[in-house]
Amino acid sequence: MAFHPRERGRRQRGHQPGLWVPAPYDRREFLRRSAVAALAVPSAGALLAACGGDDGATEGTKGGGGNSVVLSRPDRPVTLPLKGEPIADGLDPESGTLKIFNYFDYINPETLKLFEEEYGVKTEVTIFTTMDEAKKKLRTAGSDFDVFFATTDVVGQIVEAGLLQPLNKSYLANLANFWETLQDPFYDKGAQYTVPYVLWTTGIGYRVDLVEEPPESYENPYDILWDAKYKGQTWVLDDDREILGMALLRNGELDVNTEDPAKIDAALADLLELIDTVNVKYGIEAYTKLPEGVAAVHQAWAGDLVNAQYYLPDGGDVETLAYWFPENGKGVIGNDTLTIPTAAKHPVLAHHFLDFMMSEDAALHNFSWLGWQPALNSLDPDTLVADEYIPENLASTIIRPEDFDIGKGVQLLQLSLEGEKVWDRAYARFQAGAK
């Protein structure tokens, strides 16, 4: 069943059957999209309070789901409370349609077809664009999704709100195929509610033929985003946590979950400089903007650079694409998860789906199309270039188990309600200026 990227050919855009069509939004776009939107909808505090708490959590160890949610950190792992009981052992999977709730284009459609064929069922994918939207929909009466793709920063909230059911490990033998650190993650000790999906880092994608010097040639590599030579060709991610986190790292602040208003204000001041200096633009389509030459420099996720090679114009050279991530590993890193909502109508089938996606064949099949690396033990990061999964010039996108060690990669994690307000206000000010 395994499928290699060299077999798939170039992705194309269009409406004919079998052609991949991009959408205006992509995965991990969990932000308050604008200052107007922030004012037009319930406040972050009100929305999160509706997800299981109130608006009064101010302690640094309490999270956006209310006072009872403890903020997990790599050095402060959290065992989530059991809300209900796992399904019983030995049940047969239900028939019917497995309902999947996911970001746009964040799973290989052909991998879903393989699951359908193996279990004699259908799958139905419903798309969300932000985590706030997803959480709200999970709470809506009649919501009956069987599988939910959750980011690690919301897991504690939605468990506390009773939106996820605990997992029965007897159905999840393939969890052993994944890195040990993700079999027992700090944000969900014992993996009671989550299993790992794919990995990512956030760095800087650039076109080697459009920039004079690579990021590592600068005293501070992040400064390439502030270089006036690339005015009109510089993009950052349309994601509040990512862009403010990047500015914090540029200032030498490794705590990308800080709630200190002074540090956030300093990061914001630097971001506001981008508006006049480079006429900065923001978006989440580095995988098209870079190969098309619209962007010379783009803050980007590693997986999107791997995918960018499939959007080069005819005759385009993959070696024009490059990705910088801090050599010492002290950049933003993370993983996403698969979960089963409490309201799932097919919980046994959902368990089988999670296990299927963690099988070596399915995970490789998905990776070959998706470009976002799974944490498979059998997938040797040191051979991904030789095995032609990753072009040699994009080897910096490869993620290794040690990159998750404490003291290396930094992760964007859940904030307190008060902390979220500080970040939201800062990002709204940036968006208001960077129109």
Walkthrough of the structure:
The chain has 435 residues and is α/β, with parallel strands linked by helices. It has two domains: 23-199 and 333-390, 3-Layer(aba) Sandwich (D-Maltodextrin-Binding Protein, domain 2), CATH 3.40.190.10; 200-332 and 409-433, D-Maltodextrin-Binding Protein, domain 2 (3-Layer(aba) Sandwich). Helix content is 28%, strand content 14%. Strands 3, 4, 5, 6, 7, 8, 9, 10 and 11 form a nine-stranded mixed β-sheet that branches. A hairpin with a 2-residue loop joins strand 1 and strand 2 (66-70). The chain is globular, with a radius of gyration of 21 Å. The termini are far apart.
- Fourth-level CATH superfamily of the largest domain: Periplasmic binding protein-like II
- Average predicted confidence as pLDDT: 86
Task: Summarize the main sheet.
Answer: 9 strands, mixed
User: Helical stretch count?
Assistant: 13
CATH class category label of the largest domain: Alpha Beta
Q: What's the number of structural domains?
A: 2
Span between termini: 46 Å
CATH topology of the largest domain: D-Maltodextrin-Binding Protein, domain 2
Q: Class by helix and strand content?
A: alpha/beta
Low-pLDDT residue spans: 1-66
In total, how many beta strands? 11
Computed over alpha carbons, the radius of gyration is 21 Å
What is the helix content? 25-40%
Quickly give the CATH architecture of the largest domain: 3-Layer(aba) Sandwich
